[in-house]
Amino acid sequence: MDCYIVIFHPYRSLESIIPEGSRIPPTSNNGATGTNSTSGNAGAVDQSLPKDIRELYQTAWYILNDSYKTDVCLLYAPHSIAVSALYLACTIKDREKKPEVRQWFAELNLDMEEVKSVCVRLCDFM
């Protein structure tokens, strides 16, 4: 039996979210804004982004790395996995309960039940 499987990685989706994610209000308002200029690794985060946004991105990237030890890449769209990783990163950094962060996730117009389902699968691994 000969077969091929194509898996779309969630990293590019995370990279596309982060420029929008720069609108996530930083915990310390240093006025820095910018775009993400990553080229495939988490160490290339645009340094003009606020420090806590860079930390969220880095944490989400690590979560995406760990997601390959689960079956989420086979069950969910890459964008859903990326948003779930970012949501988990916000949870780890105690940012998910802030009204502005909740508003930002609401503006993404995603099925939050699907995000919750991905988060549960990822947390089952951790």
Automatic annotation (TrEMBL):
Q: Which UniProt keywords apply?
A: Cyclin
Provide the GO MF annotations for this entry.
cyclin-dependent protein serine/threonine kinase regulator activity
Q: Does the keyword NAD apply?
A: no
Indicate the segments forming the Cyclin C-terminal domain, all copies: 9-91
> Which segments show compositional bias classed as Low complexity?
27-44
Q: Name one GO biological process term.
A: regulation of transcription by RNA polymerase II
A family per Pfam: Cyclin_C_2
Keyword Manganese set for record: no
According to the record, the residues making up region (Disordered) are: 19-45
* InterPro entries to which the protein is assigned, alphabetical: Cyclin-like_sf, Cyclin/Ssn8, Cyclin_C_2
CDD domains on file: CYCLIN_CCNC_rpt2 (cd20514)
Record-annotated membrane-spanning stretches: none
- Protein name as catalogued: Cyclin C-terminal domain-containing protein
Organism, as annotated: Sphaeroforma arctica JP610
